[in-house]
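Q: Got a minute? One more chain.
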Amino acid sequence: MRIIENIQEMRRWSEAKRREGRRIVLVPTMGFLHEGHLSLVREGKRRGERLVVSLFVNPTQFAPGEDYAAYPRQLDRDRELLEAETVDILFHPSVEQIYPEGSQTHVEVERLSSLLCGVFRPGHFRGVATVVTKLFNIVRPHVAIFGSKDFQQLQIVGRMVQDLNFDVEIVACPTVREQDGLAMSSRNFYLDAKEREAAKVLYRSLQMAEALVHEGERRSDRIIRAVRAEIEKEPLARLEYLSLCDPTTLEEVDRIEKETLLALAVWIGKARLIDNTILKT
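A: Always. Here it is, folded:
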């Protein structure tokens, strides 16, 4: 595996592979890799001939007071994991490479970024859209792989690609879970033993909603009330938001008439955990 830290070197590699007719796949990450990331890497290997994994903790998607400085970083471990997966390129640029002095241009997907997590993390998705745009322009992939745990991010990137006419295929991969159902996340690292046990309430509440719909419940307010009550039974959990919404627009719905997204964010200790499921009638 080759490690590239320089934008121009990354571009030269990509241009050479494109001239050879190679199909390039990009898996964007912030590092501290887990099995969820590695599932994206494996899907990437199936989707193309050359695989680039980017590792960049993006400062512009962290608001003041958030965990940018504390976000877990283990480059040596990440490199070993990616080498074992026979990744072609680890693209690991510095902040100064991605945001040189004087940078003042941003990308924002307005409506989708203002909902769900966007209410509580203003500016977060502007940072996401900006850095993904930069990665697409630098790496020039034919395909980019994202996980469905970050469902809102996935929709925002898809909308951006459509609106800005990027020639990139966006592939969504299923959420990867621990054996007890907790969605894999780098921020699970923050949980101590008691908090880790409490975190199971997220998946349990999603399962409750799925069961209610399976039993015939279609009224959003009743489903939300039941899920909220389940989460509030866990003393270490603090619910930030809970929403039943259209999977494409992220606008809330009153009744479940078709596939509907149930999305939530819950604080447990200093870990902000998100999860979701698609409820099917």
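A: The domain at 186-276 is CATH 3.30.1300.10 (Pantoate--beta-alanine Ligase; Chain: A,domain 2).
Q: Perfect, thanks.
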